[in-house]
TrEMBL record:
It comes from Lactococcus taiwanensis. This is Diacylglycerol kinase family protein. It comes from the Bacteria. Belongs to the bacterial diacylglycerol kinase family. The chain crosses the membrane at residues 59-75, 81-100, 121-143. One of its GO terms (molecular function) is kinase activity. Pfam families: DAGK_prokar (PF01219). It is a multi-pass membrane protein. It is found in: Cell membrane. The keyword Transmembrane applies. GO terms for biological process: phospholipid biosynthetic process.
Length: 151
């Protein structure tokens, strides 16, 4: 258990009996009171994914390489749109995958359950599918330019 997990208030079913709702100050502790705190939570989540998820760093390296190739080959605006769409879709899928894996681990108490495995495998499959799309976009954009460069 991480040190930041120790200050979490766990609500039990009985806290909600007879329509009772925990005190607002306890519930709002984790709510986003304004736009800046929402942005802070979102950026914290992205930063956490980059720090803790090896595949997110690999995707970032691939994205930087694709952008550098885009600059070198001076791709068109339309090609930039597809390239950036592919990059952001891969990042989004990896963030969702990481979130799903964390929630499944928490819900399964880090025990092996076939349903937990299936959920995590499906989330990883979603990243694979969108990564395949990104690969196809990269090939369609860059293969003709590389071919023209060498021949």
């Amino acid at each position: 258990m991480d040190s930041h997990d120790k200050d979490v208030k766990l609500f039990k079913k009985k806290d909600f009996n007879n329509g009772n709702i925990p005190e607002k100050k306890e519930r709002s502790r984790w709510k986003n009171p304004n736009l800046l705190s929402s942005l802070d939570f979102a950026l914290s989540g992205i930063w956490t994914a980059f720090k803790e998820e090896r595949n997110m760093r690999k995707h970032a390296f691939s994205a930087i390489a694709a952008i550098i190739f885009g600059l070198i080959f001076q791709i068109s605006e339309f090609e930039w749109l597809f390239l950036l769409l592919a990059i952001f879709l891969v990042f989004m899928a990896e963030l969702f995958n990481s979130a799903i894996e964390n929630v499944v681990d928490l819900a399964s108490d880090y025990q092996f359950y076939m349903r937990a495995k299936r959920a995590k495998d499906m989330a990883a499959g979603a990243v694979l599918v969108i990564s395949g799309f990104a690969l196809i976009v990269g090939l369609v954009i860059f293969l003709p330019k590389i071919w023209q460069f060498f021949f």
